[in-house]
Specification:
Layout: H1 2-10, E1 14-15, H2 29-41, H3 43-54, E2 63-66, E3 74-77, E4 80-81, H4 83-87, E5 100-105, E6 111-115, H5 116-132, E7 140-144, H6 149-161, E8 164-167, H7 174-184, E9 188-192, E10 194-197, E11 200-203, H8 205-213, E12 222-226, E13 240-242, H9 243-247, E14 259-260, E15 266-270, E16 278-282, H10 285-299, E17 306-309, H11 316-328, E18 332-336, H12 347-355, E19 359-362, H13 364-376, E20 392-396, H14 402-412, E21 419-422, E22 441-442, E23 456-459, E24 472-476, E25 486-487, H15 491-498, E26 507-515, E27 521-526, E28 530-533, E29 536-539, H16 540-548, E30 553-563, E31 567-576, H17 583-600, E32 609-612, H18 626-633
Parallel strand pairs: 5-18, 7-8, 7-9, 9-12, 12-13, 17-18, 17-19, 19-20, 20-21, 31-32
Antiparallel strand pairs: 1-22, 2-3, 4-14, 5-6, 10-11, 15-16, 16-25, 23-24, 24-26, 26-27, 28-29, 30-31
Helix pairs in contact: 2-3, 5-6, 7-8, 10-11, 13-14
5'-O-[(S)-ethoxy(hydroxy)phosphoryl]adenosine is lined by residues 270, 315-317, 396-399, 421-426, 447, 509-511, 523, 526, 532, 537.
Domain AMP-dependent synthetase/ligase: 96-480
Keywords: Acetylation, ATP-binding, Ligase, Nucleotide-binding
Family: Belongs to the ATP-dependent AMP-binding enzyme family.
Length: 658
């Protein structure tokens, strides 16, 4: 991030002294330091203490950590519990029973609310329905649903019974859905007829039907459908069921299935540096503990908070900071079905004003697009709304540039709210490096300091710590309860991707980083072939293999270039079978390829630029020279060493982008 580094050099600090921590969070910088020291000196006691204090166990654990088979760490040995007991049952008797758990606002603006008690009953009824159908602990369920109260019910009903859920983002295509159904060996799919986003009705059930028709899905015994719009869909009588029919007439209590602390709560797929997405497997107890701790620490949560995380449940942020973290703490949260720009780009600010949101958590890509809109149309500027309910504002998913940070801090937070620039990943389960509200100062563009118990560092290729102001690999030196447990069905890939031997067994995050003289971390972006488009991780290899599976494409190379709105944009270099297309033909072929990618992966992976050539620049050993392509895509002069390039003349022959 050139911007971040620039700011790093000028040491741009924003004083945070106005903020008074008064929740159950970390009250001061001194207490933060003390906790860090405690974790260092008494590692197991530190984690064991929180696990005892914050979680309700049906059987207490006998040992905090088993590290005898690294990197297969096990936490809270012999302990058993149920995640939904910790998110729902506990609130029936602690005074939260009639408190709103969820304030749901639909795409059209309709608002419905559900209390903790009612959410508990819905989860129990739905879980009883699933139980009657024969689903049980260890089964796998794909959830492909819109943002709704129902998706939370579905996730928790699975967790109630020990069924492992895998939520697939509603923007993924039936092809991607199919790949995930097979990989996880699902026996159940929960979906909805349609989803509504930005005034449009998008079919989901038909994508499920298409995915199943792609074959080898005999393991699927039921498709349960939440009726969102009631528009017509295809129906298979012996397989498909309406969600409300299943809930009706069920008892409103379902006994929780207590699971081992390490039982997988869910598997969530994310892109890696090979063509196949990775199923990131999380635990039950350790994951929930870290969700709850980070929720409380990072956002300094209080009983009367109205929390709003704008992520989709299809991503890890929607798991940790919508489905699990807020409920574990008994908070009231807003869940939003729609998009920030519909019906106008003031939707977020209107909703903060209407629901009196006190903690707002969103992504830089959304902020960038709203900055743009408010420049074009001042009536959608946040200044036109009463945002005085806000206390903490957060950012997630990608680097936030100092300029965007400052706009957010000034115009949304009114220079009164700390900006939690939270660095973390699908694999880490929860926040890892983030500015706590108690920090004395914030630095726009830096995610600041690791949380207590998190031993983050920047190292070189042999695992040695690099000096401050030097770039290197971001690693975590010790395990933590919320960490990834495995890649579903691929232990070997788990070990080699995340714990490479040369890095001394440290967890390798896949990001480059550096630290400044205050120890603040600056994330410099991915070091592998993964792009970050609007906060969504996309593997270049995944897009390349989808492109070459098109009948007209011979070779493809995908790289990222910087983009004002989406952070990074996908650029595809294409060599066709046959001749390079004329400019007229190229327009149509580019359109065809974009549609192809939307079907193969999903619309988020569509290349923004498509550039045609006669061949790709390669070294003599046949490796595509991606750095060179990156320069071309970013419109930079090629001043790198091209002496190893075999086919140098091809550089002049790339088309303009389509
Ligand atoms: C990037 C999202 C800079 C990073 C929670 C990471 C960030 C990847 C930040 C994980 C941040 C996330 N600053 N970069 N605050 N947060 N990233 O798995 O490259 O979807 O490795 O998890 O997003 O993306 P994922």
């Amino acid at each position: 991030m050139p911007n971040a580094i620039q700011s790093f050099l000028t040491d741009n600090k924003v004083s945070n002294i106005n903020y008074n921590v008064s929740g159950d969070s970390i009250p001061s910088y001194d207490s933060y330091k003390k906790l860090c020291l405690e974790a260092e000196n008494n590692f197991e006691e530190f984690w064991g203490g929180y696990a005892t204090k914050l979680l309700s166990w049906s059987k207490t654990f006998s040992k905090v950590l088993d590290d005898s088979n690294k990197p297969h760490y096990k936490w809270f040995i012999d302990g058993s519990m149920n995640v939904t007991v910790n998110c729902l049952d506990i609130h029936l008797t602690n005074g939260n029973s009639n408190k709103n758990a969820i304030i749901f606002e639909s795409d059209d603006g309709d608002v419905s609310k559900i209390t903790y008690k009612d959410l508990f009953v819905r989860v129990c009824k739905f879980a009883n329905g699933l139980k009657n159908l024969g689903y049980k602990i260890g089964d796998r369920c794909i959830i492909y649903m819109p943002m709704s109260i129902e998706v939370i019910v579905a996730m928790h009903a699975c967790a109630r019974l020990g069924i492992i859920h895998s939520v697939v983002f509603g923007g993924f295509s039936s092809k991607s859905l199919h790949e995930r159904i097979l990989d996880i060996g699902a026996s159940l799919i929960i979906t909805s007829d349609y989803q509504k986003r930005g005034g449009k009705q998008i079919p989901l059930k038909s994508a499920v039907d298409d995915a199943i028709s792609l074959g080898n899905c005999d393991s699927i015994t039921n498709v349960i459908v939440y009726k969102r719009t009631g528009s017509s869909i295809n129906w298979l009588d012996d397989r498909d069921l309406w969600m409300d029919d299943l809930e009706n007439n069920q008892l409103d209590y379902c006994a929780p299935v207590f699971v081992d602390a390490e039982h997988p709560l869910f598997v969530l797929y994310t892109s890696g540096s090979t063509g196949k997405p990775k199923g990131i497997q999380h635990s039950s107890a350790g994951y929930l503990l870290w969700s709850k701790m980070t929720m409380q620490w990072t956002f300094d949560t209080r009983d009367d908070d109205i929390f709003w995380c704008t992520a989709d449940v299809g991503w890890i942020t929607g798991h940790t900071y919508i489905a699990y973290g807020p409920l574990s703490l008994g908070l009231t949260q807003v869940i939003f079905e729609g998009i920030p720009t519909y019906p106008n780009s003031d939707r977020f600010w209107k909703m903060i004003e209407n629901h009196k949101v006190s903690i707002f958590y969103t992504a830089p890509t959304a902020i960038r697009s709203l900055i743009k809109s408010s420049c074009i149309d001042p009536s959608v500027h946040p200044d036109n709304f009463d945002l005085s309910s806000l206390r903490v504002i957060g950012s997630v998913g990608e680097p936030i540039s100092p300029d965007t940070w400052k706009w957010y801090y000034k115009n949304v937070g009114k220079e009164n709210c700390p900006v939690a620039d939270t660095w973390w990943q699908t694999e880490t389960g929860g926040h890892m490096i983030t500015p706590l509200p108690c920090l004395n100062y914030l630095k726009p563009g830096s995610c600041s300091l690791p949380l207590p118990g998190i031993f983050a560092s920047v190292v070189d290729e042999s695992g040695e710590e690099v000096p401050n102001a030097t770039g290197g690999f971001l690693v975590i030196k010790k395990p933590w309860p919320g960490m990834i447990r495995n890649i579903w069905g691929n232990t070997e890939r788990f070990r080699t991707s995340y714990f490479p031997e040369e890095l001394k067994g440290y967890y390798l995050a896949g990001d480059g980083a550096q630290r400044d003289s205050d120890g603040y971390f600056w994330i410099m972006g991915r070091i592998d072939d993964v792009l970050n488009v609007s906060g969504h991780r996309l593997g270049t290899m995944e897009i390349e293999s989808a492109l070459v599976s098109h009948s007209k494409v011979s070779e493809a190379a995908v790289i990222g270039r910087s983009d004002d709105t989406t952070g990074e944009a996908v650029v595809a270099f294409i060599v066709m079978k046959g001749d390079k297309p004329s400019n007229e033909d190229a327009v149509n072929i580019a359109k065809e390829l974009r549609n192809w990618i939307a079907c193969e992966i999903g619309p988020i992976a569509k290349p923004k630029d498509i550039i045609f050539g006669d061949s790709l620049p390669k070294t003599r050993s046949g490796k595509i020279m991606r750095r060179l392509l990156r320069s071309i895509a970013n419109g930079e002069n090629i001043n790198q060493d091209t002496s190893t390039i075999e086919n140098i003349s091809i550089l002049d022959k790339f088309s303009i982008s389509f």
